């Protein structure tokens, strides 16, 4: 088998140690040298020096949790071409499972070009990715504490969720603070609101009548404080993101022109896929990497599964949420695509297809520095007019009518 990299190394990364195997080709023979290093900063610097002494040009490591990141940061910029490998793509053969053999096997695969590198964004995009992911986790925690507040209110027989759409809105928060302060009279609680609640006054008063104990007040105060702290942290994260996104403001505005995509979704897109689209040869490669297309699983001429792969979970969930927003938009191509597929495949598969279309549009917007071009809700009819005419003609004929088609002058 052809050797692509004469001097390379494989790293088996753990929490406290890194096993390195350098593979050097001399003539027609390949020699392997293995060494173990600590994952402390001094240990990783020794690893970099050890690789330079052996003139290694390419270094591959498996993506093991977050343990690969400090190794990558120390070796990056040291004259090596680094490759981050999905462990599933470089799975070891039976009988060779040990740390030394893992590094040895990874070096052999790298030398013959049998490993595919994973996408690792540049440092500014990595920082933005950390912020967007942390924001999503904090928003989830706000949702969990909100559910616990609803549970406490139900325990006190206060039916606020049935009469107030936003429990943490201006009126809902005013009622919660009044309850925590010891107020239980429905009339006085209702007086704390803005007066713009849609529910009838009688229903509001009935929903505000309950049995509130000191325990309920304590729990409401505890969860409300947690929510306020989380929202303050989210605001701090967004200010930091705004600072990091200043050089990419034009890109965010271009992505914002896609139906279903707002500033938050645009930030996640840039954080997860970066700005350099040359890493993905085509839009199809990006959609496949994100896990928004059917997997290829065939054997003996039979297709065993067409389920989408896991892909990039942080990106996929955001795109599916944006897909639901695009499906609800009016007079757009994405809405027409959703309706077209929903009747045949169901809403879940239809929204995944819409999410894939959003990501495809984002690929070309970031690659070509353009804004979104709307194809229109009648795109599918315009694309294949003859097929539409045949279908409608057959439908009318099935109802017992004769059809004569004449073009309008």
TL;DR?
With 409 residues, the protein is an alpha/beta fold. It is built from 16 helices and seven strands.
Structure annotation, total helices: 16
Approximately how much beta-strand content do the residues carry? 5-15%
Q: Name the helicity range.
A: 40-55%
Give me the Rg, rounded. Answer: 29 Å
Distance between the termini: 68 Å
Total number of strands = 7
What order do the helices and strands follow? EEEHEHEHHHHHHHHHEEHHHHH
Specify the structural class: alpha/beta
- Give the strand line-up of the largest sheet: 3-2-1-4-5
Verbal overview:
This protein has 409 residues and is of the alpha/beta class. It contains 16 helices and seven strands. The protein has helices at 41-53, 68-75, 99-111, 123-155, 170-180, 186-191, 201-207, 214-244, 249-255, 263-273, 283-290, 313-327, 333-345, 347-368, 379-383, 385-398; strands at residues 7-13, 17-26, 29-38, 58-62, 81-85, 298-299, 302-303. The strands form two sheets. Strands 3-2-1-4-5 form a five-stranded mixed β-sheet. Strands 6-7 form a two-stranded antiparallel ribbon. Strand 6 and strand 7 (302-303) form a beta hairpin. The radius of gyration is 29 Å and the shape is flat. The relative contact order is 0.07. The model has no long low-confidence stretch (mean pLDDT 89).
